[in-house]
Amino acid sequence: MAAKRVCSSALRLSGAGAARKSTGARSSRSFSTQHANWTTALQAKHTTSTTILPRIQATHPQRRFSTTPTPQHGHLDPPKPGEELKITFLDQTSQPHTFTVSAGDNLLDIAQANDLEMEGACGGSCACSTCHVIVEDEAYYEKMDEPDDDENDMLDLAFGLTETSRLGCQVKMTRGLDGVVVRLPSVTRNLQASDFKEK
Ligand code: FES
Fold first, then answer.
1. Taking burial as the number of CB atoms within 10 A of a residue's CB, which of 27, 151, 179, 193 is the most buried?
2. pLDDT tens across 57-107, in order?
3. 108 CB under 6 A from ligand 1?
4. So where are the chain's domains?
């Protein structure tokens, strides 16, 4: 009797095993179907890339790089019609150089945009005195905004300091400064604020 029960259990087990076997067969079939699908998809992708690439190469024989111009120090936009302002720089040999500029342009940018010798060692951050200019006419000097403490500190380091000395990077053109004349000193002293920090 017990043997019969074992036997029927074995039968039940073999039935379950068969079912599992049949499930395994199904999953192995579905795997091979999936595999076939992937292969087809990959082949399609490969075919697409091999057919598209020559077309791209034909229409774009050489790959081109484009760059966006970045504004650099000394870059100035031309003034709008009717808003032109004049400024004259006297160079180290007293030669005048007159330019038409816009309100808001600072003297360092104007000088550098026009290849005048103004070093601007600190990049216009009021930390050197290499953009020193001397305003020729005191009346124009009075029309400028007052120099702040930082500018006064840097001006103290400037070679050949005068009563109407300014740092070019700190002076912006305004309508009131139309016609101003500034002189470039014959020598500048390339000292920066960092030279005076404790090391
Ligand atoms: S560029 Fe350095 S202070 Fe003007």
1. 151
2. 666 666 666 666 555 555 788 999 999 999 999 999 999 999 999 999 999
3. yes
4. 105-183
- Measure the CA–CA gap between 190 and 199, rounded to whole angstroms: 19
- Whether the Cβ atoms of residue 143 and residue 177 lie closer than 8 Å to each other: yes
Which tens digit of pLDDT belongs to each residue from 25-36? 444 455 556 666
Q: Given the CA of residue 167, which atom of ligand 1 is nearest to it?
A: 4
Q: How many CA atoms lie within 13 A of 67 on its CB side?
A: 3
Characterize the bridge pairing of strands 180-183 and 85-90: parallel
Report how far ligand 1's centroid is from the alpha carbon of 53 (Å). Answer: 53
Rounded distance between C-alpha atoms, residue 35 and residue 48, angstroms: 20
User: Which sign does the torsion angle of CA 92, 96, 97, 103 carry?
Assistant: positive
Structure token pair of residue 17: 């095993």
Predicted pLDDT of residue 17: 44
The burial class, CB within 10 Å (0-12 / 13-18 / 19+), for 62 is exposed
Return the pLDDT at 187. 79
Overall residue count recorded for the chain in this entry: 199
Distance of CA 49 to the CA centre of its chain: 35
The answer as to CATH 3.10.20.30 being correct for domain 105-183 is yes
